[in-house]
Request: fold
Amino acid sequence: MLRRLYDWVIDLSERPSATWALAGVSFAESSFFPVPPDIMLVPMCVARPERAWWYAFVCTIASVLGGLLGYAIGALLYDSVGLFLIQLYGYGEKVDAFTAAYNQYGHWIILLKGLTPIPFKVVTITSGFAHYSLFWFIVLSIITRGLRFFLVAGLLYWIGPSARDFIEKRLGLVTAIFAALVIGGFVAALYLA
Reply:
């Protein structure tokens, strides 16, 4: 099953709709969807390294736009949708501490958590709930998400075909490491918030 999913994403990267699918996942991940765009970004960059920079750009813009939706959920709909999403991911008790931290460390919270596997949607929704400066939220989101996605794309671009060989020969190991990072991100967000 894992091989079929990987092959599907590799095949998808050849289609005109690939960029739109990547943008959709990046947008949704920043506001409500639990799966990070790396699940598509990595195989797409491996399949078409010459487009890696474009894919990173698309991920960045879509992620920031999705972050604005998350911000709006936190600012306008926190009592209904925002609280539901925060509790769904198990961070309900941590929101007050997280919001208080914005008063002192808001810039650093966005920059650091945007680079890590910690779910960015938690940052976006809480930023809106805390009424963090929308201007600084956008600027810092562009920096942190851009850095994250361009780092992944750059790594895969420079490693080139050997990255594809490594991933294809060790797909189970790569998937396990990726899953551990995502789960670790959720756990870290739970304890660090």
The two ends are 35 Å apart (CA to CA).
